[in-house]
Amino acid sequence: MAAVIPLREPxxxxxxxxxxxxxxxxxxxxxxxxxxxxxxxxxxxxxxCADGDPEAVDEQTxxxxxxxxxxxxxxxxxxxxxxxxxxxxxxxIAQGYAMDNPAAEIGKMREPKKLIHSFTExxxxxxxxxxxxxxxxxxxxxxxxxxxxDTGLRLSEALGLTMDDIDTQEQTLKVMGKGSKERxxxxxxxxxxxxxxxxxxxxxxLRRARHSRSPWLFPNQxxxxxxxxxxxxxxxxxxxxxxxxxxxxSPHTFRHTFALWxxxxxxxxxxxxxxxxxxxxxMSRRYxxxxxxxxxxxxxxxxxxxxxxxxxxxxKRLR
Length: 319
Hints:
Elements: H1 15-28, H2 33-50, H3 59-70, H4 75-95, H5 121-128, H6 136-151, H7 155-159, E1 166-167, E2 172-176, E3 182-186, H8 189-208, H9 228-241, H10 251-264, H11 269-276, H12 282-302, H13 304-307
Antiparallel strand pairs: 1-2, 2-3
């Protein structure tokens, strides 16, 4: 008779200690500070609700936690909590601290689809007129907005660009995206014509300030890296000066504008996914859906039956 092999017992720990080890492991794996902050923000409320032995947490515990959170936050945030708990328990199982994942069978809350706002052509023109390009900072902000409009880069990706990431011959940028995934993004002839004089001005300004070794494509006043908060505030200021109130003037609105114009002009969702660095086609399909709605609206206004003078209005019906 074959011997019965006992199931391996989970290693002894508690959720608080395991959480600290989990964060240390994320840092060791090179995940971004933003990602680590996301896990910290998402899991701390869960630990307050379920601190103790990881094996003592069951599906009902997680459901009670999510139900309590749903009274205070929107569905997408509840789904963030669920996703964080699920990934944490996958890590606990891999480390031998737990045998089962109590979040594995819990479905996500249905999220209402958010409207995707983009700039009109007139709003873009008004925005680009705001920076004082006679100054280096104004020229930097002007070219930065052109970059966002031309490539659809995320704010973190644009701020992280260095001089080594630019290839003016091939007209490409080396971009470090989410999850430390590197990709190549092209830029247009129109952007290149604005970029070349900016690079010459940048070099002259930094040389005079003895900061010529600054690696950043868009340096701040002391040749360091610009902060996300700083550029968001600056763009919001330009938006106020331009009188734009219909949409929020932010880096992400530039990204939406790039994506919508790309598909309206015939770009495919597959190419858009690669350019924007999306892990799936879901978001690219949303842009395409909006472009289809835009086409339907144009059809209402521009169809031959609407625009030709066929004498249909008030025409008497034939007997």
